[in-house]
Amino acid sequence: MMEIKPLQGIGMIKFGMTEKELKEVLGDPTNRKSTLFPANNSESIDLEYAHLGLQFHLTTENNLRLESIRFNNPDHSLFGEYPIGQEASFLNKECIKRNLPDLQLEYEYIQPGKDVYYSEEKGVLIYSEGGVITSIVLFPQYDASGENIIWPG
Prior knowledge:
Layout: E1 3-5, E2 9-10, E3 13-14, H1 19-26, E4 31-37, E5 42-49, E6 54-59, E7 65-71, E8 77-78, H2 94-99, E9 104-105, E10 114-119, E11 124-129, E12 132-138, E13 141-142, E14 149-150
Parallel strand pairs: 1-8
Antiparallel strand pairs: 1-2, 2-3, 4-5, 5-6, 6-7, 7-12, 9-10, 10-11, 11-12, 13-14
């Protein structure tokens, strides 16, 4: 259905898009959740497109621009492969190792039966439950300080 592009986005969706731009491409979301954080005077918006298995996260810290994408649809591809629903051993495939060389288990997030794998270099977070890949979260590229997003061109 859509090709995942680490550090860039998914399909025609690019990091840095606004809610309006997302709606122009995908139409209205299935669900829209806005959360206010009075302590730091910020807001986050989560847009879910259930029929596509996609969720988008925007915050006022980044001028309400798209800063993370979560997907759980097995029809979305990563490096020509389809990870959702695969056993976690899928992550040992040569194409995954070649394209996500720093992918490793994140021990601080381990819960019984649930694992999280992360590639900081490519901004890819992979969740598995019961040994099966259930969802992937994509992040944009950050500068050397790790504080500022480098938006795709």
